[in-house]
UniProtKB/TrEMBL annotation:
PROSITE patterns for the chain: TRYPSIN_DOM (PS50240)
Cross-referenced Pfam families: Trypsin (PF00089)
Alphabetized GO MF terms: serine-type endopeptidase activity
Species this chain originates from: Culicoides sonorensis
Positions of the Peptidase S1 domain: 28-256
Name of the protein this chain belongs to: CSON003490 protein
Gene3D superfamilies: Trypsin-like serine proteases (2.40.10.10)
Amino acid sequence: MLILIPILFCSLAVQSASIESQSIDLRIINGLPVEVAGRPFQVAVYTGCSPTCRLCGGTVIASNKILTAANCVYGKTARPMLVYAGSVYRSYGGEIRHVKNISVHPNFDPVTFDYDVAVLTINQGLLLGGKISSIPLWSMSHFNNRLPTIVSGWGSRSSASTVLEDRLRSGEVRAFNSTTCIQDFGITSLTSTQLCAGIEWGNKDACFGDEGGPLTNKAGTTLLGIVSKPTEGCGLAGKPHIYTWVFPVRDWILSQ
């Protein structure tokens, strides 16, 4: 399960509106700053404060569709949610969109995080090109074991920190097949909609603040996974992170 950490509030000024976000989310450990051209599909999702305030990551998959983790929006309503796109900074320099509809996968399990995927429909389409673009979903039923991948988000640089990063950061991790996840790392609870990714010796990982964000191939041209939950802490040796693998839920995503 996800680790709860002390409350930290951050604000986003949108003309006369503002949002506060409690940092109970996932973050990139030992990641590097990203230029917007490198992750133009990455967005910040402010989910409102009912029952708790939260900041998550998200991915542009169409001009009016944002892909994120179901655990970010489960049990919440669309009205207070905002999507912030087109900037490497989570609080300025980009475009704001309101969320008008939330589609959580009907098989989402908040205990096991199986089918941890949701699609947000925003009130006004984003102008794609330049600082904002969509990314295609992984379309093959397999991937090479230890595939080099990139994960990104605004989380803290340490699992012991409660400070969200203001600038987007990314880190390279390896995506492992189910056999490696189960036999080498002992993740016996892995489901058919999940994959694990990380570094065998730890050091780089998603952590609190990055949930819902993208895991892509190294070139950043295809979306392989969605940040879901840690197996045990963040950035620990032999404890890769759990992601939702997009291929098994691809048809559902595209139907929303």
